[in-house]
Request: fold
Amino acid sequence: MSGIFAVYLWIVKFAVHFVDESAKAPQTYWLLEGVRMDCEVCGKKEAVCLVYLEGAKMSACAGCARGGKVLYYFQQDSETEGAPQVSRTSRTEESIVDGYGRLIKSSREKMGLSVEQLGLKIAEKANYLDHVERETTLPSLALARKLEKFFRIRLVETESSVQAEAPAGYGKKELTLFDVAEIERKGEKKKK
Reply:
């Protein structure tokens, strides 16, 4: 129940109240502001007004609005103009470099430290460090960062990938009056 009430409040908060007084009995419409609408006549992605056309009220672009009576102009937002925005999600993956054991062992030996001494200096168990040096155990990213800082070597490599996501509803097309007329016209041609 609370979810429905929240949706109702959202609609009331972001809606424009419009009364059509030209009709025989005044009718009330709630049009959401900032919502990009398609032209119901030709299918363009830029409906700019609500028109009374051929006995029906529908959203229309500027070209199709000339054929009917304009009831209401939609408020244009700067966000809704132009091409649909594609959201990009970038993902960074961190991995341990190949040959990490050799790098750690050679760096440790250059400093003249034993595995036990290294363990004491970076607060890690010597047995665990020995397994990492022999590459039988993959070090955690935290340990790799500790070793990078201590030895000033590169153990973690970062790979970034960008994935593009199409906007919601992009690519879906609803049937417009123009589409219906085209279907009927093609059907009449086939009958002849």
Observations:
- Residues 36 and 80 are 6 Å apart (CA to CA).
- The helical segments are 2-13, 62-65, 100-110, 115-122, 126-133, 141-151, 177-191.
- Confidence is low (pLDDT under 50) at residues 5-20, 23-30.
- The radius of gyration is 33 Å.
